[in-house]
Structure formats: structure tokens, C-alpha cells
Amino acid sequence: MTSVRRESRERRAVEGFKCASEDIGELSRGMCLFAVTRGQWSMIDAALHCLDQVGRSKISVWTWAIASYEVDILNRLRTDDRLSAGKLIVDGSIRTIQKKYNANGVQDWKKTFGGDSVRYVVNHSKMVRIHSESGYRLLLRGSMNLNFNPRFEQFDLTEGGPEFDLVESLEVDLPVLPDSCSMSDTFAASKAGRAFNDSTLALFGRVKVWAK
What is the pLDDT of residue 67? Predict the structure, then answer.
């Protein structure tokens, strides 16, 4: 049954040279889109285009960092009554080494969507999950960050399917950690211990040093 549903999907591949609305186009049930861009639109642009079509929704955002600019956009959508709820899954380093880049992004998010709307993990994935009141179940993912980045990026969008269910189940399973949580706490919340041996696990015990 699963293989039949997959074969029935509307599958498209796009080399994007325009904006998110033109490259992604009209959404449809069961669709599957793959796109390659030169970075002329970002993940937030793709999410906004989808929200314009499907109406009021719950949204979850997986990212390495988030700036106040992105929160301001989503806050405006909430003010317009287009978002009923929001969840942010973000790397725990956002509270320390990323602080000078994201300003007060996480706290702004909490003010908008509630104190329990943020999940600290060890994360580098970029995904947006949109569940609309009209019944659309969209999963957006790709190499692109929330912000503008003019270079080759890849993007995938599917409506429904096991991938949406998987990400939803992961989100449900993540604990709510305080802002003061340790790197070890975020490591444990991510269940990374199931994927690595002891020598690799030691890397999670300290803040990663980024090349300048």
C-alpha cells in the first residue's frame, strides 16, 4: 500500500531561478518537489509561500540558529491569525557561541509562542513542518538556512507521507529543557548516544570550536 501511494505522488524537479512562489508553484495533495536554487530564496521564503496557500497552521522550525528577523516575520503571521502554534527545534549552542549572531531570537520566539515552544538539541538540520487547519501536512527540508544565502542550495517539499509523520514523532519525543541546560543535556535529549561509540560521544561534552 505504501509503495502505491508513493507512485501516485505528483513528482516535480525544478532548477529555480526565480522566487519561492514561482519555483515551488501551486501546492497539491500528495505532491513531491525537488529544487536546486542559487540561494535566491530561503527556507523562510518557502514557508511563507506555503502558508499563503494553505491558511492557518501549526508550524515547527528545525534550524541551527534563528535571528530576531525570522521571529518578527512569524510573529506578524500570528498577529494576522495565520499561525495557531509554533515550535522551534534549535542547537543548544544558540545560547552561547551563536548569541552574537541571533540577538534575542530564541527569547523572541518564546514571547510569541510560549515558554515551552523551544527544544534545545544538537542540531544541524533545516526543516519546516506545517500542519494546516485545512488538512495540508507539509514537510520542507534542504540545505538552506532561514536567511538569504546566494549559493547553490537544494530543497525538498512533500505533502503527507511517512517523512511528515517521522518528524512529528521526533518532535513529540523531545523534552522541554531550560535555557540553563548543559551541552550534556542537549546531547541526551537528542538521543545521539544511540548512534555513536564512546570515543565519538566525548565530542558532545564540550562546546564545538568553530574555525575563524
Answer: 83
Torsion of CA 74, 130, 26, 45, to 10 degrees: 30
More confident residue, 136 or 203: 136
Number of domains, the chain: 1
In a domain, 129, yes or no: yes
pLDDT band at 10 (very low <50, low <70, confident <90, very high): confident
The range of the structural domain enclosing residue 198 comes to: 2-205
How many whole angstroms separate alpha carbon 64 and alpha carbon 100?
Answer: 14
Name the residue type at position 169.
S
Enumerate residues 6+ apart whose C-beta is below 8 A from 122.
91, 92, 183, 186, 187, 190, 192, 204
Q: What is the CATH number of the domain that holds 154?
A: 3.30.870
